[in-house]
Design a protein that fits this description.
Elements: H1 4-15, E1 21-26, H2 55-63, E2 67-71, H3 74-77, H4 86-89, E3 97-102, H5 112-126, E4 130-134, H6 141-153, E5 157-159, H7 162-165, H8 182-185, H9 190-210
Parallel strand pairs: 1-2, 1-3, 3-4, 4-5
Helix pairs in contact: 2-9, 5-6
């Protein structure tokens, strides 16, 4: 029979285990397939100049983890109709998975309460070894507060990214590839994607420190 000390040591080892894969659940910032309608020919995070420059791939590269993308923007706009997809988008999430969730931008005001409830259910199903949640990019403060509570109540770390869009340091609208459709161009480009990735990685490190993990138990990007 394990002693109390042994049990605590085993729990600490489990909590400080390095993730073996990264699952990102999100909207068009995570992945948008080619669409002639909005003149977007690529299949990665919208407005990034290349796949390896969107935030999800940057985080995966920084942490040296295999990446799985689960883009479900429909979950934002019609949450009750897509609750049945939670098992699908959380498939293979286990205690060796770092999960990043970036949703909320397409939530409608009239179904915001419904979205928040569904979002909480998603987070419960998606909580692997570590959970990091992102705020809205377009800055819905009321929704961000509710998502932050849901995330932190579930043991996750919440990352604000909405300030980046209108930051005076943001060069995305002046340099690099520009897109004819305003809604596409208003997504984070390479600078914005890089800053989002930095914040997600910092949140992961913060969750490790909160769990009391030793630096040797982590792999710094």
């Amino acid at each position: 029979m394990a002693t109390t000390g042994q049990a605590r040591e085993s729990t600490a080892r489990s909590e400080c285990a390095r993730p073996e894969k990264l699952v990102v659940i999100g909207n068009s910032l995570t992945r948008h397939p080619p669409s002639a309608q909005v003149q977007w020919p690529n299949d990665w995070g919208m407005a990034a100049s290349a796949k390896e420059r969107d935030f999800a791939h940057l985080v995966a590269s920084a942490l040296r983890l295999p990446l799985e993308l689960r883009a479900i923007p429909e979950f934002e706009s019609a949450p009750s109709q897509h609750l049945h997809r939670i098992p699908e988008v959380t498939a293979n999430v286990d205690d060796k998975t770092l999960v990043v969730v970036g949703l909320g931008d397409n939530a409608k005001n009239e179904t915001a309460a419904e979205f928040v409830s569904s979002y909480g259910k998603l987070l419960k199903a998606a909580h692997g070894l570590r959970l990091v949640c992102m705020s809205t990019w377009w800055g819905n403060a009321a929704l961000d507060r509710q998502m932050k509570k849901q995330c932190e109540d579930g043991g996750g770390r919440f990352v604000g990214i909405g300030d980046l869009r209108q930051s005076p340091q943001n060069p995305d609208q002046q340099s690099g590839p520009q897109y004819a459709i305003a809604a596409v161009n208003d997504h984070p480009h390479d600078w914005g994607m890089a800053r989002i990735a930095e914040r997600v990685v910092a949140a992961w490190r913060g969750s490790e420190e909160k769990a009391g993990c030793q630096p040797a138990a982590r792999t710094a990007p």
